[in-house]
Q: What sequence folds into this?
């Protein structure tokens, strides 16, 4: 289903980048699922993380309504992109249609997702290992983006994926690669954040690394630094990221 | 479908009041509808208002995905209650299952809803009368509230309604009643807002009046002042509201 509130624009590289950023910089999302009892759509709130291939992940209680719904029907929709000051509809937001894949607790995938999720949501350590809590991978099938009034785009699921033969390697070596990068540039997180949003006085950290870029965190603010191209090897990723430098604007 | 992430609590008067407040103080909401082409749930963002009977209303373009979905299937779900600082899941939120009723543009109901909506969303005057824009009343059928970790409640649609034989009278005379109330207490909006949230330096106005209470606005902040009981006449409403006074706390 396309969100054609306005004339549909051609989905170019810039639109795809904005869509990926809206999905990957969201700390939480509205999720819509199908109520197995009534067939009604059901909207609720979930904490959001991402897997190494860019697939959004959620951590949910087995007793919650959305979990029981996903067990009955894997179709779900995520709304990401929060409004700021002024008209809420002037802010870009993304609707991603997904199919939910439960994550087996004893799998390598679970360990990887758990680590990435905790880096982003430190307070989740209070309940992440409760026996009734589980992860789902929500694999994007298609998406529609409303970039603000008059700017609507349709995307494919693949537009939101990080396709790289190096995904597993980077997942396994992420800590090591980051250590090397920070040895070379201790201000990497700050440089990446300020390149995206200009100078501030916040303390920035890195809470995620994948072949598509960096997740940056400062308290409750999450930013996504998207690389122009997806790295196809760990050394290519290292090379791309080590080029990030914040240049103070010359007035 | 009940959100039983935590032990379900008894739905008492306090829980009902919180639920009504979450619905009536929301400037916008996530709406979940059913995609008529794929059957997927579809989550998007809408501006929210209320009708005189407490029923939430949305203003939507006929070209948007959610409008086409509601034309095909009236079942919808609204998520209201935005998070603030800290863990997003620590903040109360409400999922309301609704049936959508299109509002005929030439009806008295349309004129009433349009006026109330513009009082709340002044910038909507730019497009509210565009020929492809329409209102839907989203009549609550049931709701589930998550009041933060460990506090889940189930509500009936009727818990979110303003049932009063004076609804139509108050809708017709709202401006006049407000003028009388403000003659008596020019600080009414400020008194009501400060009673709810303590002293601040904002300028408060009233953007809605109904038999259940007042909608208060300051820039982009909306507050709901809920009366303890629904007024059954215009004079009873006047009497309830004229008693609102902010008492500076004695330290």
A:
């Amino acid at each position: 289903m396309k969100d054609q509130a306005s004339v549909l624009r051609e989905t170019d590289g810039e639109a795809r980048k904005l869509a990926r950023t809206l999905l990957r910089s969201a700390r939480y999302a509205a999720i819509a699922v199908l109520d197995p009892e009534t067939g009604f759509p059901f909207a609720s709130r979930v904490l959001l993380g991402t897997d190494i291939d860019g697939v959004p992940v959620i951590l949910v209680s087995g007793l919650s309504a959305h979990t029981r719904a996903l067990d009955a029907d894997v179709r779900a929709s995520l709304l990401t992109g929060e409004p700021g000051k002024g008209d809420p509809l002037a802010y870009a937001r993304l609707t991603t249609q997904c199919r939910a894949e439960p994550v087996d607790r004893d799998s390598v995938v679970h360990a990887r997702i758990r680590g990435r999720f905790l880096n982003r949501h430190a307070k989740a350590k209070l309940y992440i290992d409760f026996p009734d809590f589980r992860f789902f991978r929500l694999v994007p099938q298609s998406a529609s983006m409303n970039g603000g009034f008059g700017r609507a785009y349709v995307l494919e699921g693949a537009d939101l994926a990080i396709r790289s033969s190096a995904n597993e390697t980077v997942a396994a070596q992420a800590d090591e690669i980051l250590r090397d990068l920070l040895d070379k540039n201790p201000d990497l997180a700050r440089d990446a954040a300020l390149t995206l949003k200009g100078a501030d006085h916040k303390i920035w950290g890195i809470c995620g690394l994948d072949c598509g870029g960096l997740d940056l965190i400062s308290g409750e603010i999450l930013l996504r630094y998207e690389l122009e191209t997806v790295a196809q090897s760990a050394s290519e990723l290292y090379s791309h990221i080590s080029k990030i430098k914040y240049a103070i604007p010359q007035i």
Chain B touches chain A through 51 residues (CB under 8 Å).
